[in-house]
Amino acid sequence: MTILGDARSYTRKTGELIETRMREICEGICRTHRATCEFRYTHEFAATSNWKEQTAYAAAAAAAVVGADRVDAACAPFMSSEDFGVFLEQVPGCFLVLGTGTPDGPNAPLHNSRFDYNDEMLLTGAEFFAELVRRRLPE
Predict the structure, then answer these.
(1) Contact assessment for residue 57 and residue 46, using Cβ atoms and an 8 Å cutoff
(2) Preceding amide of 106 cis, omega within 30
(3) Contacts with 82 (C-beta within 8 Å, 6 or more apart), sequence order
(4) 16 backbone φψ class: left, alpha, beta (φ>0; ψ -120 to 50)
(5) Running DSSP on this structure, what letter comes out for residue 38?
(6) What is the pLDDT of residues 36-78, one digit of tens each?
(7) How far apart are CA 80 and CA 8, in angstroms?
């Protein structure tokens, strides 16, 4: 029997604790039933944790484009699987969610078969990145 799964956490330390506890549980269940198991756990992803200074730059640029009332620079953490977290372990940066929903919804999440990208947000995204570059480049 093969059991596969995915575990996510906000920190590497918590990820390591999850691995340890999962291993202990699997091995304990097998010992109880006089069975054996092969436990493999990979650490392929890192939590996506923004850098404070880069988040401030992104929030200011976003506020200039869409208005401060539409920007949440301190949103609650959420679980996702994003390769960008590995980059943020090495290079200061900020992962942001542009928000491509439509007011008339319902809006399906990304990686959902019902997701429908709001093409009108392409201009907003371009304006945001242009504003961010203007603010970050030396004069």
Answers:
(1) no
(2) yes
(3) 45, 48, 95
(4) alpha
(5) -
(6) 999 999 888 888 889 999 999 999 999 999 999 999 998 888 7
(7) 8
Instruction: Tell me the pLDDT tens digit for each residue of 7-28.
Output: 888 888 999 999 999 999 999 9
Closest CA to 6 of 114, 101, 91, 111: 111
CA 50 to chain centre: 10
Domain co-membership, 61 together with 122: yes
Number of domains in the chain: 2
- Compute the C-alpha angle 31/33/34, nearest 5°: 60
Beta carbons of 82 and 6 less than 8 angstroms apart: no
Instruction: Please tell me the predicted confidence (pLDDT) of residue 139.
Output: 65
**pTM over 0.85, yes/no:** no
Give the range of the structural domain holding residue 29, as residue numbers without chain letter.
1-44
For residue 101, the model assigns a pLDDT of 76
Token duo for residue 123: 């201009």
